[in-house]
Amino acid sequence: MHYQRRPSWALPEAAVTSEHLFLNRRKVLAGMGLGAGLLALPGRGRAEAGVSPLEAAMNPAYADAGRELTSEELSSTYNNFYEFGSSKRISQEAQRLDVNGWTIKIGGMVEEEFEIGFEDLMGRMQMEERIVRHRCVEAWSMVVPWTGFPLSELVKIAKPLSSAKYIKMQTFLDPDVATEQRAAWWPWPYTEGLTMDEAMNELSFMVTGAYGKELHKQFGAPMRLHTPWKYGFKSIKSIDRIEFTDERPLSFWEELADAEYGFWANVNPEVDHPRWSQAEELPLGAEEKIPTLLYNGYAEQVADMYGNLPEEVGERFWR
Ligand code: MTE
Fold it and tell me: How do residues 175-219 score in pLDDT, each as one tens digit?
């Protein structure tokens, strides 16, 4: 992973708000007015009220990321998905990914191991939309409207044992589709993990759509994680295996370079990457860098998991 200061493709129309969000913001207002939310609207079905995998109700707590939305054109053509190549231009290659009949294996320290079809899982989830910030460890950032459901809801279905301390997630392994997986020097499959506390945090989100559409393959279809307070590499794509364990999982980047990309990876502008500063970031499409915020601005939701004050936390949670 490395950092490009000013990408040549950055377009001025990056700030345009998409029509679907404009419409969905109106739904947020309607939902807030009702108090009970959109599902309580009399005489309206779930789909009409905006609750479907494709068009979910906006979560009012995450209706505004406080920054301009990144255009779909930019965010979907500048991706990290090393299975399809180590450049940012993998969106075409990623179209080879076949998500039909996708299943997710759930195992390890659970009451009973099982495999669930992606469609079945969707049917059991209450979908919502959230607009959140994403901060890559390479010091670029974006703001994307994701559709999905809280990871905590999936954990409830998985029924982990109380002795499980971590959740480990893995991306598909198929070198015929993802040709970079033929390269043996990468520790495939891509693996990531969270503590159980982190997994149950309201910010941990399973993403199944973006910009009001089914999740783009390059974003990690059909389902990827998003943990907005952590550097982007924690947000593992195209998950097909979830395991509960009492051993801290070794993640893909940690295995490759543990001094640079550790397990915790909480965003902190005061702790530099060994090779560059983390004090600022360049939003995709922007001309100017902006200051990076502690926990990417989500301290209110997550800081108590780490002892609250950065001084108390010390070095340990930043890498
Ligand atoms: N997941 C998989 N399976 N493979 C990857 O290469 N890259 C990570 C993360 N998840 C990656 C992955 C990194 S470094 C980042 S910054 C984000 O995905 C990028 O997500 P985006 O392409 O949606 O912006």
Answer: 999 999 999 999 999 999 999 999 999 999 999 999 999 999 999
Integer Cα distance of 39 and 202 in angstroms:
20
Contacts of 311 (CB under 8 A, 6+ apart): none
Beta partners for 290?
Answer: 281
Provide the pLDDT confidence category of residue 55 given band limits of 50, 70 and 90: low
- The overall average pLDDT reported for the chain is 86
Domain ranges of the chain: 13-314
Which pair of tokens denotes residue 236? 């593992």
Give the pTM. Answer: 0.87
Residue among 88, 235, 238 to mutate when testing ligand 1 (max atoms within 8 A of CB): 235
In the CATH scheme, what is the code of domain 13-314?
3.90.420.10
Q: What separation in Å is there between the alpha carbon of 65 and the centre of ligand 1?
A: 20
Q: What residue ranges line ligand 1, CB within 6 angstroms?
A: 1, 79-83, 136, 171, 190, 219-220, 232-233, 235-238
CB of 232 within 8 A of CB of 135? Answer: yes
Is the confidence at residue 14, as pLDDT, over 50? Answer: no
Which of 46-55, 90-99, 203-212, 300-309 has the lowest average pLDDT?
Answer: 46-55
Of 186, 206, 237, best ligand 1 pocket probe by most atoms within 8 Å of the beta carbon:
237
Structure tokens at 80: 């990290």
